[in-house]
TrEMBL record:
<keyword id="KW-0963">Cytoplasm</keyword>
<keyword id="KW-0378">Hydrolase</keyword>
<dbReference type="InterPro" id="IPR036895">
    <property type="entry name" value="Uracil-DNA_glycosylase-like_sf"/>
</dbReference>
<dbReference type="GO" id="GO:0005737">
    <property type="term" value="C:cytoplasm"/>
</dbReference>
<comment type="similarity">
    <text>Belongs to the uracil-DNA glycosylase (UDG) superfamily. UNG family.</text>
</comment>
<keyword id="KW-0227">DNA damage</keyword>
<feature type="active site" description="Proton acceptor">
    <location>
        <position position="65"/>
    </location>
</feature>
<comment type="function">
    <text>Excises uracil residues from the DNA which can arise as a result of misincorporation of dUMP residues by DNA polymerase or due to deamination of cytosine.</text>
</comment>
<feature type="domain" description="Uracil-DNA glycosylase-like">
    <location>
        <begin position="50"/>
        <end position="211"/>
    </location>
</feature>
<dbReference type="InterPro" id="IPR002043">
    <property type="entry name" value="UDG_fam1"/>
</dbReference>
<dbReference type="InterPro" id="IPR005122">
    <property type="entry name" value="Uracil-DNA_glycosylase-like"/>
</dbReference>
<dbReference type="GO" id="GO:0097510">
    <property type="term" value="P:base-excision repair, AP site formation via deaminated base removal"/>
</dbReference>
<protein>
    <recommendedName>
        <fullName>Uracil-DNA glycosylase</fullName>
        <ecNumber>3.2.2.27</ecNumber>
    </recommendedName>
</protein>
<dbReference type="Pfam" id="PF03167">
    <property type="entry name" value="UDG"/>
</dbReference>
<dbReference type="GO" id="GO:0004844">
    <property type="term" value="F:uracil DNA N-glycosylase activity"/>
</dbReference>
<keyword id="KW-0234">DNA repair</keyword>
Length: 221
């Protein structure tokens, strides 16, 4: 089965593409995209991997599923295309960066600039039907992204995993915490942030401090 994904990932994930669950998933996704409006567009489903090769990964952020509004999703978790209003969770992420790192609020919500520095922006589910949050959950994507996390954990060292909210924390069970840095906090959504579970987590400065201790370049958030 030909899955259009960056070669550094394809080499490691090829066995998944031949498994029954993945073949079923591909059939489901193709059927959904042929019958309904779905996001992101087909060429961007694996954008998180295309912008951040396996060798370059030094930070992993785990989201739940893509934005389901027109023009928002671009294959990177929490990211939106240029010119699209920032969703509430992204606004809260940028506000935390403002206070944590004393950086100005950015105009662009496109996080390709993070991915290109080695931040894997991984949604647990890589596709969604328009206006129906969670509509492609439990179809096989979660099995695939669990394997992605397991591969990073097993084959790399000193990666920072940022787990925001209960869903991401559960995905964190695949991480070997003896050789990686795992930072956990509430989800940046207004529901969580307004209950005091997001702001002040300082995950961005903590990530950079850890990377620098390992002799790696900090992320220009």
């Amino acid at each position: 089965m030909n899955v259009n994904i960056d070669a550094s990932w394809k080499d490691r994930l090829e066995p998944e593409f031949e498994k029954a669950y993945f073949k079923s998933l591909v059939h489901f996704v193709k059927n959904e995209y042929s019958q309904y409006t779905c996001y992101p567009k087909g060429s961007e489903i694996f954008s998180a991997f295309d912008h951040c090769s396996f060798d370059d990964v030094n930070v992993v952020i785990i989201g739940q599923d893509p934005y389901h509004g027109p023009g928002q999703a671009n294959g990177l978790c929490f990211s939106v295309n240029d010119g699209i209003p920032h969703p509430p969770s992204l606004i809260n992420i940028f506000r935390e960066i403002e206070t944590d790192l004393n950086k100005p609020y950015p105009k662009s919500g496109n996080l390709e600039r993070w991915a290109d520095q080695g931040v894997l922006l991984l949604n647990a589910t890589l596709t969604v039907r328009a206006h129906q949050a969670g509509s492609h959950q439990n179809k096989g994507w979660e099995i695939f992204t669990d394997e992605v996390i397991r591969k990073v954990s097993e084959e790399k060292e000193h990666v920072v995993f940022l787990l925001w909210g209960g869903y991401a924390k559960r995905k964190g069970s695949k991480i070997d915490r003896s050789k990686h840095c795992v930072l956990e906090t509430g989800h940046p959504s207004p529901l969580s942030a307004n209950r005091g579970l997001w702001f002040g987590n300082k995950h961005f400065s903590k990530t950079n401090a850890y990377l620098e201790r390992q002799g790696q370049e900090p992320i220009a958030w």
